[in-house]
Amino acid sequence: MKIYPLITLKRYAEQVIMFPFVLLGKGIAVLRPLQEEYDVFMFFPSYALGGAEKVHAAVVAAMHSEKVIVFFTKRSQNDKLRHFFARPDVKLVEIDRYTGSKWMYWANFIYRGICAQYINSQRRKTAVFNGQCNFAYKLLPHLRKDILKTELIHVSEKKFGWVTFPYIPFINKRVMVADSIIRQIMQQYRELGIPEKYDARARKILYTVPVPETLPARLPHPVKKIAYFGRGGYQKRLYLLFAIVRKCQAAALPVEFHFAGTFEDEVPEDLKPLVHWHGRIGSDEEMYRLHAQMDILVMTSLFEGFPVVIMEAMSCGVAIVATAVDGIPEHIVDDRNGMLIRATEEAAIVEEGFRHVSRLAADDALLASIAQNNHQYAVDHFSKAVFDRAYRNLLELP
């Protein structure tokens, strides 16, 4: 049974229930309007340290001279990336107190009305951009039809898809980072009975990262440096990475592991003396200095779009060992850019990851070749100019 009509019916029922709160919010916005006009309204969950947040900041930076207002709708766990969003023509507004509270959920309804009135009352042509933000999806039905509504969705996880599915008709353009993600989401459309007329709204735009103009000379390290930088959580399956660490230690491989990010509490106590912990990295300069010292980046994710940390590592000539999920195989070719872990059973993932690390650690010539390949790939594919033009076209800006 195709359940999309039921999903739509549920959305209608929710809109009826919350209508008085939305109307109240619109009234508040009329009494307390914005003091300026804006070309683009953007909505993001937070500015905490993370790959998605770096991409969101890059989208903001692509707005070269436009007036932009950015709403953050969830409490940020840290402020490491806030400064990336702060720009001369950008106003940052944190509304998480009202939109991210489980105890004040009625305030979320009111803020849908406030933001809708702000956007609908703009006299200049304006556009809305949603960076995978739950609040922004639920705002969409309250916006004028003539306002351009766009989004960036990082992964095809169906769990998050249930947030987006009811609002597909309101999104004019949906950006994804990989062809595989587009295919997976189209498959979800068919399973649910979402009309095919919405398929054409999907498009692919690759992320951008800074790319050094030249790759510094990399002398072979007698002890190879293996990295994981980022966050934890069930998606990243760091317990598989930790198992690879243990196998490398047991085999006395000439390797050392370097970790950085927000997952220190997930590192087992017995492993902490065996790894180098670099903490939370908040600046590109610091992150790239760290990448430039590494030989191999290892990721054991359950699903991904195309991780920013892989792009950064490739820019610095680091070899990639990663699970062959979603967008990763579109950019990583065995022996050219690194090695893919194709196993799907967890024990086999650990074994295959260990074999790849062992092989790379023993082959300086292969690591040197991969370093050159990855830097050139980054030069050819991760251009800021291409990224900026793609997002300006998306938002129909000159």
UniProtKB/TrEMBL annotation:
Pfam families: Glyco_trans_1_4 (PF13692). CDD domains: GT4_PimA-like. Gene3D superfamilies: Glycogen Phosphorylase B (3.40.50.2000). This is Glycosyl transferase family 1 domain-containing protein. It comes from Chitinophaga cymbidii.
